[in-house]
Structure formats: structure tokens, C-alpha cells
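Input chain follows. Return C-alpha cells only.
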Amino acid sequence: MSDAQKYINKLAGARVLVIGGTSGIGFCVAEACLENKCTVILSSSQQSKIESSISRLLKTYPSARDRLSGHPCDLASPNVEDNIKSLFSKIGTVLDHIVFTAGDRLVTMPLKEVTLETIQRAGMVRFNGAMLLAKHAVEHLAPGPNSSLTLTTGTVSEKPIADWTVSASYAAGLHSMMRNLALDMKPTRVNLISPGAVQTELWDWIPKEQLEPMMGELVRGTATGKLGQPEDVAEAYLYCMRDQNVTGSLISTNSGALLMTGKY
């Protein structure tokens, strides 16, 4: 008689859409879902990124070829709502879980330089995209607490940083969005992950001579003595998918940065 597998197979067979799944935390969520025997659909703004990510994933999980696909969806476009509708139409099947990790370059600037265009652009993907996705996700998620929508914010929503006011405002707004969506979408579960600084491609645009001292300051601002790794942060998203008792909740994974007195 073989041992029971009550816990490790909880996600087996689940259909998971990962928006922002071609890099960073989203890519690791996709990896983890494949490892847990899910069917995974990646979405990103560019088809080339999706194809490249699928190729990378299949090198690690070659048996997952029949459980992995992807479709583009540009959330920065003025036609964002039509793009979301088109994405769901292309998927063409009921989903069990949706993970939203999509984001573009964060807006950081002194308050005196902020413009209306800056404010509107900063919220297009991370806030507007998340809200409109939730609006249409209701029709495409399996009914009941087995299904979930997991959104992403950041610790700047909990700990202020000078010159981050625009980005922080949207990040904090996601807290209220998530709690209200948990009511609007019930019994589907809605939760929010708040990562601290994580070593991903998000930092690649910063010149090396600026990035190295910045990373040193970030590390000194942690209680663990190291930055978060996307493979570790991905576990928070798995938890929100697995636990049918969690909804309307914030999961913070930040290397203890909120306990520290550093800038970040």
C-alpha cells in the first residue's frame, strides 16, 4: 500500500494563468506550477518573450509540453480591456487560478517633477490592468473557493520611501482593491502578495555602477542578510492557490525589511 499524497498533489491538474509569467517572480510561479503538475498558460506583452520562456521551461520540465502554452496581452495599451477579453477568448477554457505579477518600470522621482501623464502611466499595468483583469476573470474562473486570483503589490505600500509617492499610491491602493474584490468575486478567493526587494530582471535597467551600491543598501536593510529570491517568493503564490481558507489576505514576503530602519 502506497503512502497518501493528500498535500503534495493539491494543485495537480489545475489550470493556471500567470500574467507576467515570462520573467522574475511570475516565471518562477510558472515553474512551480508545472512542477506541481498544473496546466500553465503564460501571458506577457510580447509573443517573443512568451516563446522564449516556454523554451526555457521545457528545458527544465520536458514532460510538460502538453501542459504549457502562452498568449500575448498588452496591458499598457489604451485598448487594455479589449486585449484582456481577447486573451480569455484565446485561452478558451475555464481556469482554476490566475496569478498577476505583471509590471513595468516603477516610477521614482521627486514630487516636483510629477505630472498628470506620469501618474496615469504609472498605474496603467499594475493597477488598471489588475482591476480590468478581475472584472473579466469572474466569467472565466471555475466557481467556488477552489479557484483564486492572486495579485501583486510591494513593500513600498507598507513602508514609505522618499520619491516613490506615485508608485506607492498605486501599491497601497491594491490592498483595498484586493479586499473589495474578495467580496465582489466571492466565493472565488482573492489575495495579495507583497514582496520586498527581489533579485530579478526588474533591476537590469540600472547601470552597474549605481546598482551595486543600491543592492548593498538593500541587503543591509534586511533581517535575513540577503535579498529575496524569486524561487522563494513564488511559494507565497502557491500557498494562496492551495489554501481554500485564505481570501482577502495580504501575504508579505520581504526578508524582514519591514522590521529594519533602513531606507528600503
